[in-house]
Fold this sequence. Notes:
Blueprint: E1 2-11, H1 15-26, E2 31-35, H2 41-45, H3 48-65, H4 80-90, H5 97-106, E3 109-112, E4 114-119, E5 122-126, E6 132-143, E7 147-149, H6 165-170, E8 177-181, H7 185-196, E9 200-205, H8 215-227, E10 231-234, E11 238-244, E12 247-252, E13 257-260, E14 262-265, E15 269-271, E16 303-305, H9 316-335, H10 351-354, E17 358-360, E18 365-370, H11 373-378, E19 383-389, H12 394-399, E20 406-412, E21 417-425, H13 432-440, H14 445-448, H15 461-469
Parallel strand pairs: 1-2, 1-6, 2-3, 6-16, 8-9, 8-14, 9-10
Antiparallel strand pairs: 4-5, 5-6, 7-15, 11-12, 12-13, 17-18, 18-21, 19-20, 20-21
Helix pairs in contact: 1-9, 3-4, 3-7
EC number: 1.8.1.4
Cofactor: FAD
Family: Belongs to the class-I pyridine nucleotide-disulfide oxidoreductase family.
Amino acid sequence: xQTRETDVIVxxxxxxxxxxxxxxxxxxxxxxxxxxxxxGGECSYWACMPSKALLRSAAVLREARxxxxxxxxxxxxxxxxxxxxRRDAMTHDWNDSSQVEWLNGAxxxxxxxxxxxxxxxxxxxxxxxGAETRIxxxxxxxxxxxxxxxxxxxxxxxxxxxxxxxEATSAHEVPARLAVIGGGVVGVEMATAYAGFGSDVTxxxxxxxxxxxxxxxxxxxxxxxxxxxxxxxxxxxxxxxRREGDDAVLELSDGTTIHADTVxxxxxxxxxxxxLGLETIGLEPGAWLDVDDTLRVxxxxxxxxxxxxxxxxxxxxxxKYQARAAGDVIVARAKGTTVDDAPxxxxxxxxxxxxxPQVVFSHPEVASVGLTEKQARNAGLEVRVLDYDLSWVAxxxxxxxxxxxQARAIVDAEREVIVGATFVGxxxxxxxxxxxxxxxxxxxxxxxxxxxxxxxxVSEVWLRWLESFGRPTP
Length: 474
């Protein structure tokens, strides 16, 4: 067995692990990153990037067909093979050589293989050929191992060899009939994509769609999916599954039976910690890592959990935000310099609690940040809700001849600051950063009156929200 020592070990070379390693190297710490699969991780090859590539082409066609003068130029149908080629190009055909080149240029040492913690600041990496390397960290080990799809314990389901998000985003054949189990972001986006390809899609979502967001968002997306020909089935659970010839047969709790060629399971995520060696340091294997706001695992002063693995916000951009804070605080602690761990300090991930932005690339698009009305009330805030129909702003008519959308701002009436915002409509993701800045900066409503939205754009909704709230009194 080979042995070596370094300052920091990062387990997982996805977007989150790469960002941690980049910060520690920039801080002068020798850093080794360990990866068992592809450098670049889930986001680059099986999640964010390929999924958006699958969604974009059909979305562009819908946008063109919604504008007179442009719709007449659309004379053909979606070229599914072209979409898949574009997806393959975006994933570099699942070749990570360019990502490895970036690691080399950044001064980050890559070790390929499966990492397992074996003791304090120590792990063993087992390569594909069985060779083992024991690596000891002088300062910290960072678990950036991400998460995997949760497969529910439904009789017969595994016998169908269902897709997870990985298979859905990397497929080279489009099923004629696709059943999607789950109404969260993955389920909604993949239902949208495959409906755009011409699949007969059924979504089974017991509690409706996008349950963690404002209810009007899920309702609008359900309506949008139905416009695309998707069957949205709510109020029933999957209770059993079986194979009948070439058909996957799903039995629901309300007595409904659904036949499909392929089943996609999108019911949640589980942490990649089952074979990480957590039991060797007194932690539960297979559990989410409980971290403080500096991303350090509680009770283990040398172990950090960053990204999905800590279950705080399972989004790539939040993981990268956490990575910047974690990398910098590891450097500060290693060098004995001041740790800025006050709320909104340089070494904490405060935004995870109150200002998490998210875009669902559905039809229509959904963008949200901060608290929903229900969350704000549950937090004990004095709430004012500002609702506005986005089709009423002048900019909407420049975007689409049939613009439909909704915007909601949640205001903490006592402090007169916005604490949450949700937008539903075409390309509303581009509205989100302004709301995120207003929430993180706690910009008073009185000051927002001086942030003039350009005309005619959809961002004029900010002025309409302000008018609904009322002008500040001198």
